[in-house]
Design a protein that fits this description.
The chain has 224 residues and is an alpha+beta fold. The chain has helices at residues 18-24, 46-49, 85-96, 105-113, 167-180, 192-200, 202-215; strands at 5-12, 27-41, 53-57, 61-67, 76-82, 116-130, 141-148, 152-161. The protein has one domain (5-215): Hypothetical Protein Pfu-838710-001 (Beta Barrel). The chain is 31% helix and 33% strand. The longest helix is centred in the C-terminal third of the chain and has 14 residues, at 167-180. It is globular and about 55 Å long. It binds Thiamine Triphosphate.
């Protein structure tokens, strides 16, 4: 698979005291930002059904999240995040079984592969960094507190790592901070996109739920 960073993360439901608790734990607010995410897939949701997530984020560009390995267990997720367009196009072709796509970039790839926008929403995010849990150069721990414009709020504790070998130590930090934030052990709130689909594209949501059930692993679609 093409090169990228591995995003290890755990979602949680923030409460009114979460920001204050982050400050007590030595967290610093990096920025507050508002952006629009637009997600793309085939009409049959071939990418999402295969646990692949393609989006264009306002201010950041194209991002493609691909599963690192099947059968990740526990309340966290691990995804390889591709941001370089040639790597994204190559991976899209692999997942969708397409061959011979030229070097025309994302616009050509979207057209040739039949990818269309399936969701678009705006997020207000406060982005926190926890220096206490990891020095600048070694696995800094980040917490994002997100409010989507369709009325859903979710937080995530995350670490970006270069290699699979770094995942266990990232998870240790994620679980220890989650516990200090009072996150219930089994809490796995759904991603914003999943809640969006449930509310605005219920047939697509049901399709993903069905696929996830047959995989016998929660995919963040159980309790929106
Ligand atoms: C990976 C994924 C989806 C795509 C959106 O990913 P997410 O991490 O929710 O994005 P965002 O914007 O909140 O954070 P950022 O990328 O900026 O860090 S939609 C569903 N999934 C898969 C998934 C899963 N398998 N399990 C759980 C609990 N959540 C999501």
């Amino acid at each position: 698979m093409a090169q990228g960073l591995i995003e290890v993360e755990r979602k949680f439901i923030p409460g009114p005291g979460t920001e204050e608790r982050l400050q007590e734990l030595g967290g610093t607010l990096e920025h507050r930002i508002t952006f629009r995410d637009s997600y793309y897939d085939t009409p049959e949701l071939s990418l999402m059904k295969a646990d692949h997530w393609l989006r264009q984020r306002e201010g950041s560009g194209w991002e493609f999240k691909c599963p690192v390995a099947a059968g990740v267990s526990g309340p966290h997720t691990e995804y390889l995040e591709l941001t370089a367009e040639p790597a994204i196009v190559a991976q899209l072709c692999e997942v969708l079984g397409a061959e011979g796509l030229g070097a025309g970039g994302m616009t050509d790839a979207l057209r040739s592969l039949g990818l269309q926008e399936v969701a678009s929403f705006v997020t207000k995010r406060s982005a926190w960094k926890l220096v206490h849990f990891g020095a600048e150069e070694e696995l800094p721990l980040r917490v994002d507190l997100d409010s989507a414009d369709f009325g859903y709020t979710v937080g995530e504790v995350e670490v970006l790592v270069q290699e699979k070998a770094d995942v266990p130590s990232a998870l240790e930090k994620i679980h220890s901070l989650s516990s200090l934030l009072g996150v219930p052990t089994r809490e796995t709130p759904p991603a914003k996109l999943i809640v969006y689909l449930q509310r605005f594209r219920p047939q697509d949501y049901d399709l993903l739920l069905e696929v996830n059930r047959s995989r016998e692993r929660p995919q963040g679609t159980e309790h929106p």
